[in-house]
Amino acid sequence: MTFYTRYVALGDSQTEGLGDGDDVNGHRGWADRLAEHLARANPGLLYANLAVRGRLAGQIRSEQLAAALALRPDLATVMAGMNDLIRPGCEPAAVAEALEEMYAALTESGAHVVTVTFPDIGKIAPIARPLRPKVLDLNARIRAAAARHGVTVVDTFAMEFVTDARMWGTDRLHASPAGHARIAAAMAHALGLPGSDDTWMPPFPPLPPAAAWRVAAAELRWFATFAGPWIGRRIRGRSSGDGRTAKRPELTPWARPAASPSAPQSAPLPPAAGSEVPAPAAGGRQVVPPGEELLERDLGLDRRSP
How far apart are CA 296 and CA 81, in angstroms? Predict the structure, then answer.
């Protein structure tokens, strides 16, 4: 069994941890959760998270790869490409080229690299159904590139739970707290870390069906709250990551930050419409509602319903 001492995470908003916390109290996310698991095996773990929301695969390569190599990691995770896929004109070959350059450079430096394939996003947001061929194309290229460089792949495309709404936050783009926990567990299992197993793989338990009008209302609210503003930023040439930097740019002993230093120098962003700002619990660990509660609150489901 390998004990990792220097973990560096590269990526975009998913790796930064959006959906698992907020800009006021800090984002946790799957990479922080994986670092916590790594630190249980090696309390001396050093951890850096270079991810910045909104970044495309090519930007991650140009902005984060050199910094990651300078930190001399023995473990690196690379999660990039979703921001490319959802933009018009995405070319999976170009995205895969950027990813493969990162795989090659990091593995050649001696790091064990872990990456992921992407889910069928049309099952998460129906408006994205036309993107399925590009998702399949990119996933095939990721698997091939990973095989060429000895990269470990967490391949979850065919798994039922990955497109369950409880895996995703109300924006349907970022993982929910429950989703981030499953991604971290999958990474730990792929690495064979002590205490890891395959309990992240089964589907979520079924929920009672929601009334059709509630589903329709949720779709309209999602488009108005998330899809519409996202389209507006694309038209204006803006990104959610404008003015932001990595939340954890240097290798430091594992400890969750009290607040996100990646936010730009402006007023904190408010929580998403319909969400609540979770209060920190004793000891500084932020309490966030699990993915099931987020979904049930949005659709008005009651666990007590028959």
Answer: 29
In tens, the pLDDT along 96-119 reads 999 999 999 999 999 999 999 988
Q: Is 115:142 a contact under the CB 8 Å cutoff? A: yes
CB 53 within 8 A of CB 89: no
pTM metric for this prediction: 0.75
DSSP string, 11-79: ESHHHHTTTSEETTTEE-HHHHHHHHHHHHH-TT-EEEE---TT--HHHHHHHHHHHHHHT--SEEEEE
Q: Is the pLDDT of residue 86 over 90?
A: no
Determine contact, residues 268/24, Cβ cutoff 8 Å.
yes
> Could you give the CA distance from residue 37 to residue 52 in angstroms, rounded to a whole number?
22
CA 185/CA 135 separation, integer angstroms: 23
CA end-to-end distance (rounded Å), the chain: 47
**Burial label, 57 (beta-carbon count in 10 A; 0-12, 13-18, 19+):** buried
In one-letter notation, the amino acid at residue 67 is A
